[in-house]
Amino acid sequence: MIIWGSYVIRKELKSGQFYCPQCQTDRQYIHKLPRRWGHLYWIPLVVLDTHESYVECQTCSNAYQEQAIDHDPRREHAIKMAAIAAMAGQVMIHVAHSREAELTIGQIEKFTCGLLGIKKLPEGTEAQLSTSIDRSGMLNLVRERGDELTARGKELVLRAALGDEAIAPSTQTLVFEIGVAMGLTPAHVSGILAELIPPPIAKELAPQSRCPAEETVFAPYKAPAASVWD
Ligand SMILES: [Zn+2]
Predict the structure, then answer these.
(1) Which long-range contacts (CB under 8 A, 24 or more apart) does 32-35 make?
(2) Is residue 67 domain-shared with residue 36, that is, in the same domain?
(3) Cys-Cys with 28: which of 58, 98, 137, 211 at CB 3.0–4.6 Å?
(4) Residues 83-101: pLDDT tens digits?
(5) How many distinct structural domains can be found in the chain?
(6) At the top level of its lineage, which domain of life is listed (predicted)?
(7) Confidence band (pLDDT; 50, 70, 90) for 212?
């Protein structure tokens, strides 16, 4: 009797460590290529079919597409954090410069770490912040990375850059440009700015801007010096 038929042999292409989405940590994997062989007396003779290769976790046995080998959400998250920190830092630097102020890396670090919920600036961010970029470069960075933040996150970046002091029109224009480049609506940015710019009428009526009753707007009267000729 002739014994012939087919079976599947899973060829091991490579093995190593990868981030298993099921185990949610680093695990050993084997990259396998299943092929169906035609055999005669159990000796494989010819490949009948080649299936798609897959990556198998050696702990949970789950199978993934080949791309899983290079997919590491922790690394991607770290890259994203670094990019947002660099963007927020550049926004703060540019707004501070428009007010002729300087920020220390410590001030930037304190805010960006608070915003991102991390303990220290991501690796490489400090170097990125020491590189000065011009206004359009900063706005491009904001456009590229703005989508990474929620409207609330964008607002927090603007508020941190602004502080709580009144700002000059040139800074208002810059902040408006940044806010819109981030993807905030012009109305939203105007709302944030309006909190720092007292409306003229309110300013006029504010007690501290009114002249106290006991003072005068005029310089005090000075009696003319006695004539030297007397
Ligand atoms: Zn696993």
Answers:
(1) 32/56, 34/8, 34/9, 34/10, 35/8, 35/9, 35/10, 35/11
(2) yes
(3) 58
(4) 889 999 999 999 999 988 8
(5) 2
(6) Bacteria
(7) very low
Q: What is the distance in A from the centroid of ligand 1 to the CA of 64? A: 10
Q: 23 C-alpha to center of ligand 1: Å?
A: 4
Domain that holds residue 98: 75-207
pLDDT of residue 210 exceeding 70: no
Same domain, 37 and 81: no
H or E stretch covering 43: strand 43-50
**Do 156 and 178 sit in the same domain of this protein?**
yes
Distance 71 CA to ligand 1 centre (A): 14
| 152 CA → ligand 1 middle, Å | 36
Q: What is the pTM of this model?
A: 0.67
CA 59 to centroid of ligand 1, rounded, Å: 5
| Span from the CA of 25 to the centroid of ligand 1 (angstroms) | 8
**Pair type for strands 63-64 and 54-57:** antiparallel
Residues whose Cβ atom is located within 5 A of ion ligand 1 = 20, 22-23, 27, 57, 59-60
Q: Among 48, 71, 94, identify where a domain stops.
A: 71
My answer on whether 46 and 104 are in the same domain is no
Ligand 1 centroid–CA 65 distance in Å is 13
Are 178 and 99 members of one domain? Answer: yes
Can you give the pLDDT at residue 202?
47
Look at residue 228 and tell me whether its pLDDT is greater than 50: no
